[in-house]
Design brief:
Elements: H1 2-42, H2 46-61, H3 64-83, H4 91-117, H5 120-128, H6 133-163, H7 175-186, H8 189-222
Length: 223
Amino acid sequence: MIQILSSYGGLLLRAMGQTCILALWGLFFGSLLGLIFGILGVMKNRVCQVIQQVFVTIIRGIPMMVLAMFVFFGVPYAFKNIIGVNLTLSALQAGTICLALNSGAYMAEIIRAGIQSVDKGQMEAARSLGLPYWRAMQRVVLPQAIRTMIPTIVNQFIITLKDTSILSAIGFPELVNSAKNVVANTFMSFQTWLIVGVMYLIIITLLSWVAKRLERRLARGRE
C-alpha cells in the first residue's frame, strides 16, 4: 500500500479532483435543468406538467451506464448518419451531459417539492401586490424554497459524486478509471481499491457532515 501511495498517490489525488470537478459541473447544469423542469411541474398548465413528468420518468428510468453510452457513442452517431453533421464529444463533455441529465431529473423533483412546501398564500400575496408570476417566483417563493432544499441538494451532490464512477466506461480519467490503470500496472488489486474506497469515504463523510449541519441550522432557523 505504501508503494502505491508513493508511486501513484499524486495520480489518484488528481483523479479525485477530476471526479469532484465533474460532479460539480454535472450538478451545476443539473440544477439548471432541475429548476426549469421543477417550475414546469408546479405550473397549473397541464402541458407543462406532462413535459416535466415525461422528462423525469424517461431519465430516471434509464440506467446511468446506458445513458453514458448513449450520449458518448449514440449521439455523435445520430448526428453523423441522420443529420449529416460530424459531432465529437470528449469524455468530459459526454460525462457532464450524462450527469446533468441524471441529476437534473432528480433535482426537478427536489425543486418541485421545495416550491410546493412554501405556503400558497405567499404566491397569492405577491401576485396581489402586482408582481408577475415569474417575478413572484423569483423574489418570494424560490428564496424560501431554497432554504428547505439545501440539505437535499448536498445529498444529491453526494449521489452525483458516486455516479461519476460509472463514467470510467467512456474513458474519463476519474478515480475509478485511474485506479484500474494502477491495478494494471502494479497487480495490487486489494490495496488499490482499498485506497480508492477510503478516498471516497473521506469525501462523502465530509459532505454528509455538511448536509447534517445545514439541516440542523435550517431547522433552528425555522423554530
